[in-house]
Amino acid sequence: MSDGKALVHRWFEEVWNQGREATIDELFPPEAVTFGLGEIDSEVRGPDQFKPFHRNLRTAFPDLHITIQDTIAEDDKVVVRFLVEGTHKGPRSGHRAHGPQDSSLRNVALKSRGKQNSGRLEQLGPAWDVAPTGRNTARTCGSLL
C-alpha cells in the first residue's frame, strides 16, 4: 500500500472508527483546510477547528463507522470512496436525534503531504455523494477530513 493510501486508511480507522483525537493532531496539519463541515461553503483550518466538529459528530452518531470501499492513489493524490454508517442518537447542527441508522456513500480527494511534512493529509476539495445506499440516506458527515 502506498504511503498516501496508508495515511488515508489510518485517518478513517483511527479518527472516525476508533475516535482517536490524537491522530487528528498527527495527520491534520495546522495550515490545512477541510470543507463542508455542517454549512455550505464552510472551511475549517487546522486540527483545533476540526476537533469540535469531530466531537459533535461522534456524539450525534456514537456508533459511526466508515468502511473504505475503494482507494486510488497516484503520486501524492488519493481518492477514496467510503460508506458512512451510524445511528443518529444525539443532537447535531440543531437537529434532534431521530434514531434510524443513516448511511451515505461518499468520495473525497486528498493529498498526502509526504515525509517532509511528517506524512500528513490535506483535502483537495469538498467531498461528494456517490449514490443512495438503500437505507435512510443522508449527508451525515460533511467531508470527514
Quick recap of the structure?
The protein is an alpha+beta fold. It is 26% helix and 32% strand.
Can you give a write-up of this model?
With 145 residues, the protein is α+β, with helices and mostly antiparallel strands. It has one domain (3-137): Nuclear Transport Factor 2, Chain: A. Helices cover 26% and strands 32% of the residues. It has 3 helices and 8 strands; from the N terminus they run ααββαββββββ. The protein has helices at 3-17, 21-27, 46-60, and strands at 33-35, 43-45, 65-74, 77-87, 101-112, 121-123, 128-129, 136-137. A hairpin with a 7-residue loop joins strand 1 (33-35) and strand 2 (43-45). The chain is globular and about 40 Å long.
For the structure shown, list the relevant keywords.
disordered C terminus, single chain, two-stranded antiparallel sheet, Nuclear Transport Factor 2, Chain: A, globular, 8 strands, alpha+beta, six-stranded mixed β-sheet, 145 residues
Report the CATH architecture.
Roll
- Largest beta-sheet details: 6 strands, mixed
CATH topology type: Nuclear Transport Factor 2, Chain: A
Strand content: 25-35%
Kindly report the average pLDDT value: 75
Overall form: globular
Low-confidence stretches: 131-144
